[in-house]
User: What shape does this take?
Amino acid sequence: MLGQLLPRFLAFLNRKACSKRPRNGKASGMNSCGYSLWATEPEEFRNWLCIEFARRRKDNPRYSLRAFAAALKTDHSTLSQIIRGRRTLTKKAMVQLRCHLDWTADMRSLLGFASLPGFSPDLRRCAERLGISRDAAAIALQRLVRRSRLAMEGNKWVPL
Amino acid sequence: MGAAVTRWQILSKDPEASTSFYATVFGWTIHSDNPLGYRELRSNAKGGIDGGVWPCPPEGRPMVQLFIEAPDIEVTIRAATRLGARVIISPQLLPQGERMAVLTDPEGIPFGLVQSARA
Assistant: This one.
């Protein structure tokens, strides 16, 4: 039942979101519809979740709500209730979901690479090996350090 | 004597363009041959301080940060947080031996602390 209704519901939300201007002016972390990952209003954040799920399904039509819930470290029934507006989104819940959503592929790759034996903390070499730009590697490093997932200790990077 | 501002840093969404802009307009030289690939901008002029450009993540705002010398970074962080500052990046040991941290002041304006490499 949910499988049939969800795509239509998401398409509706996507149309609705695309026809609206963003309520806050933050340009950061916004999707193409202007909804921000950093939205502070539960409704706006819920819309962002729906649109992000729709985006992932567009990239991979087999991407399921269950997979999205797993990525957000929550269970699919909770996520389904959040998306349908049947569950109140607290600020704490938004912070937790945001934390998992903002974990990028570059961060994962860099952290994995830094954990390899014989790793050399040369950002340009890391970028080359990971096939990303030097700036993307620098941003990933900055995010990891800021979240205390990686510590720079002189000529070593220590995954935490 | 108070603590000196020892360097500045531009956080830019397009670091390459920003570096090139400042180098061209002010005649500063670019040095990025370091382990972090950090784009250092040097004026090579008497007086003044040098700085650099670092990429700004999509969720951030382009800005200029000032880095202030801290003889003991932990002591300075304690003093600052007592007065309402928040630690954004805890002290990190850079490859050149300096320790660096980033905080926000009570108004939310970010600034950096640098403790010189110990001899």
Residues 2-101 of chain A form one domain.
